[in-house]
Amino acid sequence: MPSSVPVPRPAAPGSSPRPAPPAFAHRVDPAWPVTTDRLTLRPVVPADAEAFLAWRSNTSVVRYMYLPPWDHPTAVLKLRTWSNAPFEQPGDVLVLAVELDGDVVGETLLKWAAGPRQVEIGYALHPDVSGQGLATEAAGATLRLAFSAYGFHRVFARIDEENAPSVRVAERLGMRNEARLVENDLRDGVWSTEVVYAILDREHARS
After folding, report:
1. DSSP 8-state class, residue 47
2. pTM for this one?
3. Any bridge partners for residue 159, and if so which?
4. Contact of 81 with 115, CB cutoff 8 Å
5. What is the pLDDT of residues 143-195, one digit of tens each?
6. Which of 33, 38, 107, 165 is most buried by a 10 A CB count?
7. How far is C-alpha 206 from the chain's CA centre?
8. Which strands, in side-by-side order, build the sheet including 118-125?
9. Residues 6 or more apart from 78 whose CB is under 8 A from it?
């Protein structure tokens, strides 16, 4: 597979330059959009704000994100920020819109983590399309991107233990339960327990 490392964006006047991204064994720019049997995945654009607001304002969805529900200004700001965000070094986040029959119904993300070639995966769909296996399909496509396009070695997911649907997605993707952090955070003022699921590049290649 050909190797390609993105050129860092120039720093704004008066700011410190971003460090050069770490070298990967391989990295290619994905051919957007990415398609599955039923879905299309692509980087978000500002016009996705209204669609994202539909589930990001839903308390049943965001409670497991440990975030307050969005309002319209927040949606506009977040989508504008994510649309222009680089994905070149630890701390960067790539957010993808998930389309079903041309409608944006969910999101997946890759968050570049500290440590060599480590990345966190996340996923959320509108409740109206739940129960159809779409979260597994979208997350599976994002997992393949993490390994085949971006060359990460390990992909992990941090999930609230009570978020059973998200746990099932991780298990269907072949991720293993690596840790259980008992009451390590607060959700709605109540102690919650986090489980960590992960998979390595060579394990994914065998699946």
Report:
1. G
2. 0.86
3. 195
4. no
5. 999 999 999 999 999 999 999 999 999 999 999 999 999 999 999 889 999 99
6. 107
7. 22
8. 34-35, 39-43, 93-100, 103-112, 118-125, 154-160, 190-200, 176-187
9. 49, 52, 70
